[in-house]
C-alpha cells in the first residue's frame, strides 16, 4: 500500500524556521515526482515545491523561492521541506504529494493527511 505521512508542522513566529517531513511507504521517492502543496482557509490548494525522481531537479512557487528548500533522503524514503524566513501568509495546512506514472494507468497522485503550519506572533 502507498502511504505518505507528514510531520513537523507547528506554531512559529514570523522570521522563524521549520522543517516538514514526508515519510513514504509502498514506493520509492527516488522514482516519483514528490511535491509539497499548501492550503490556507478559503483558498485553493497550491503547489509550493517539487523534486523529480530522476536527477532531483527542483521547482518552487514564486512566493517561496529563496526561502523554502525541498530535498529527499532516498535511504530513508523521505522528502523534506525546509522553511526559512517564514511569513504569516505561509500559514496553511501543508500536504505531501507523490505523482507516479504507469504505462497502464498514466499519472496517479497520492496525498498525505496534511500538517498544520501557523506563522504568528
Q: What's the story with the biggest beta sheet?
A: 7 strands, mixed
* Helical coverage, percent range: under 10%
- Tally the helices: what do you get? 0
Distance between the termini: 40 Å
Percent in strands:
over 45%
Overall shape: it is globular
Which segments are poorly predicted (pLDDT under 50) over 5 or more consecutive residues?
A: none
Map the helices and strands.
Elements: E1 3-7, E2 11-12, E3 18-25, E4 33-39, E5 46-51, E6 58-60, E7 68-73, E8 78-83, E9 92-102, E10 106-111, E11 115-119
Description:
There is one protein chain. The chain is an all-beta fold. The chain contains no helices and eleven strands. The strands form two sheets. Strands 2, 4, 5, 6, 9, 10 and 11 form a seven-stranded mixed β-sheet that branches. The protein has a four-stranded antiparallel β-sheet with strand order 1-3-8-7, with no helix packed on it.
Key words describing this protein structure:
0% helix, 54% strand, 121 residues, 11 strands, mainly beta, 4-stranded antiparallel beta sheet, 7-stranded mixed beta sheet
What would a concise description of this structure say?
With 121 residues, the chain is mainly beta. The protein has no helices and 11 strands.
Amino acid at each position: 500500500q502507498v502511504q505518505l505521512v507528514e510531520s513537523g508542522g507547528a506554531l512559529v513566529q514570523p522570521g522563524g524556521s521549520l522543517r516538514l517531513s514526508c515519510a513514504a511507504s509502498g514506493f520509492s521517492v527516488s522514482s516519483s515526482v514528490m511535491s509539497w502543496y499548501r492550503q490556507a482557509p478559503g483558498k485553493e490548494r497550491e503547489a509550493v515545491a517539487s523534486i523529480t525522481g530522476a536527477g532531483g531537479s527542483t521547482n518552487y512557487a514564486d512566493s517561496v523561492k529563496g526561502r523554502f528548500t525541498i530535498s529527499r533522503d532516498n535511504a530513508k524514503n523521505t522528502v523534506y521541506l525546509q522553511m526559512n524566513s517564514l511569513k504569516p501568509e505561509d500559514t496553511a495546512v501543508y500536504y505531501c504529494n507523490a505523482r507516479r506514472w504507469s504505462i497502464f494507468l498514466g499519472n496517479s497522485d497520492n496525498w498525505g493527511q496534511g500538517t498544520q503550519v501557523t506563522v504568528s506572533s
